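thought: fold this chain, then report.
action: predict
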Amino acid sequence: MRNDHPEIRTMVGGRSDLRHYIVSVGAQAVGRVASLAANMVSLAMVARALPPVSFGEYVLTLALVATLAQVADFGTTAIIGKELPHYRSSPGPFWTSFLLMRSALSLPAMAITVAASFFLSDSAGQALLIGAFAVPLLAARFFDPVYQVFGRAWYSAVALIAYALVSIAGNGAVFILAPSLKAFLLAVVAANLAYVVVALWLAFRLIIPSPKPGHVHLRKMLRLAAPIGLAALLTSINGRANLLFLDHFRGPEDVGIFGAAGRLLEAGMSLAIMALSPLIPTFSRLSADPIQLAARSRQTLLVLTSISLPVLIVAPYLSDPIVTLLYGSRYQGSAHALALLSWVGALACFAVLCSYVLLALGITRFALWNTGCVVVVNLSLNLTLIPGLGPDGAAWAQIGSEIVMVLTTAFQLHRALPGALPLREGILPVLAAIIAAGTINVGFDQLGPLLLGFALLPCVAVMGRFRWEARPAG
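observation:
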């Protein structure tokens, strides 16, 4: 029987893509879960060993280092996942060009880190000087697309497990022997150095660098990466500017309280990005057929909606025991901020997935003005809310700016690829989740189970529709 349904045809033709995606995510998940567990254990040791003021300086240092690592990345990690499949038969010149470009970008990032250290207090400035050595190492997380393209996705797990082992060993030694801010930061540097050494060795087993870089590759990568890189830098500022405002208006203790919640959000986002990033090559292969790409985008967004909304409902119930278990009773103030930040995570996942589809279409320039607008909104909300509300104000400011990000990115995707957004199917579960989570957050906890069921039923309906669309005809 002839199959005229484009969505069914997309799924039938995409079974190999689905298998490839599952293998890639599964291989990365082993190492990523190990590294995230190591990060959480290490952070718990730092929170319990250091006073709240020093913990706040630790969180602020890592936030600044992560922001400056975006300068060293400059959007090139997303580009290698898109471009490397086109050079698989002869990847040497492309790989050499990429490594040279990343090395060159790391130098100004380190210089900015060193310069920024002189504008901080003595303790925070010395901490940031140590963090400068971690900037190029933290930015060197571009190996996963390489392993995926060459069918060695499990290499990701090897490199991340090496990172996890060194991180646990280093932070554990500091925690037991001589806990201090500087020593914990040196453990961060050592763990990231271990990752880069192992990951680079594994990558060289797949690609031998060419003695001559490809100048065409450099120009093309920079042209594609520039708007993404600037947008990623602005996104990083958008996600971490609240720590600078908290430090200025409220002090390092509030930085530590909000940072404890923020680090949990970053851990969750890392898992989400791990699950979403293998879709970049798949979307790129489908970019020649807009109908198939739109169908795959819509179905993926439906799955993301059905998974994330129940998490938002239960977040207020889980945040307090999670925070107390990890950080101790001194950081119970982080629980409400964490419940609010769960919305930031869900919104960010939606925006990231939309941006991946746009990247496959070669549409990247919008990201710069889009993210610039979001940063302006974020800074304005931080300036307004943080002096009075503290960590909760920082969380609300991030929610507001992330809503702007989702709306503008989704609008751009709808214009570029009509039919890529599940507008009709997604409206019911989204409204249910907003009503349920809003009611729970304002204090009507006794309605939680009823509203949770109210939010879950539309999600089940959405998944049922997705399964029906994926079933071959006849």
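thought: worth noting. The chain has one domain: 6-470.
final: tokens above.
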